[in-house]
Specification:
By secondary structure, the protein is of the alpha+beta class. It contains 2 helices and 6 strands, in the order αββββββα. It has a 6-stranded antiparallel sheet, with no helix packed on it. One of its GO terms (biological process) is sporulation resulting in formation of a cellular spore.
Length: 96
């Protein structure tokens, strides 16, 4: 199992009782607040929704994020190709 975890570009989510989430393969944190965390991962954009969300650990050098709180949903969307379209996608989500 150690060999699997050490591969570059691997994306993994571990969710415990909908209260604690450990995520690998994160390249950027685009936004976060108590109701939503938006991450850029190896597998696309990941939106985590819930209540009282807290980013308890962030290590972008290793691509790791830990989130605590009540997690209600994890939603992926396709990763965009350029930074301009990423910003547009983020803005369109904020104003829905």
């Amino acid at each position: 199992m150690e060999e699997l975890n050490s591969r570059a570009g691997q994306h993994r989510i571990s969710l415990v009782n909908r209260e604690a989430c450990a995520i690998n393969g994160v390249s950027d944190v685009l936004s976060f607040d108590v109701g939503e965390v938006l991450l850029e991962t190896e597998q696309g954009m990941l939106m985590i929704r819930g209540s009282e969300l807290h980013v308890s650990r962030l290590t972008l050098e290793k691509g790791e994020v830990d989130i605590d709180g009540r997690i209600d949903s994890l939603t992926y969307s396709e990763q965009t190709a350029s930074a301009g379209s990423k910003a547009e996608s983020l803005l369109s989500r904020l104003f829905r």
